Amino acid sequence: MLHVKINGAPSTFDPGMSILDALRSAGIEIPTLCHDERLIPDGGCRLCVVQVKGHSRPLTACNTELADGMEIETHSPEIEDCRRTLLALLARQYPAAAVDQWPEKE
């Protein structure tokens, strides 16, 4: 069993899980766009970033394997700001014609 802390709370998980799988099994939701259970995760959208103690940059939860002793922070102001920036960068490339076609989806 792996012993980790998520948002300060101790938890245990089976080896071989990704951080995202562990979070979901603990009932903690974080945003994802590119994650699909049927595919190998690649962290492409990066919206699932979390802060892991000892790492200077946020890590993608979908393709980072859980390790014993990890301390994970999922919703700090810095992580939320990072996700907002990433989503804004992704949205900049969205085709204007699609927005015009379905304005109620904005």
- The overall average pLDDT, rounded, is 90
* Structural class by SSE content: alpha+beta
Helix content: 25-40%
Main-sheet strand order equals: 2-1-5-3-4
Provide the low-confidence segments as ranges.
Answer: none
Largest sheet: 5 strands, mixed
State the shape: elongated
What is the string of helix and strand elements?
EEHEEEHH
| Percentage of β-strand residues | 15-25%
Report the radius of gyration as a whole number of Å. Answer: 16 Å
- Got a strand count? 5
Descriptive report:
The protein is of the alpha+beta class. It contains 3 helices and 5 strands, in the order ββαβββαα. The protein has helices spanning 19-25, 77-92, 96-101; strands at residues 2-6, 9-13, 49-52, 59-60, 71-73. The protein has a 5-stranded mixed beta sheet with strand order 2-1-5-3-4, sandwiched between helices. Strand 1 and strand 2 form a beta hairpin. The N and C termini lie far apart (44 Å).
Can you lay out the helices and strands and say which pair or pack?
Blueprint: E1 2-6, E2 9-13, H1 19-25, E3 49-52, E4 59-60, E5 71-73, H2 77-92, H3 96-101
Parallel strand pairs: 1-5
Antiparallel strand pairs: 1-2, 3-4, 3-5
Compact description:
This protein has helices at 19-25, 77-92, 96-101, and strands spanning 2-6, 9-13, 49-52, 59-60, 71-73. The protein is α+β, with helices and mostly antiparallel strands and 106 residues long. The protein is elongated.
Descriptors:
single chain, 5-stranded mixed beta sheet, 5 strands, elongated
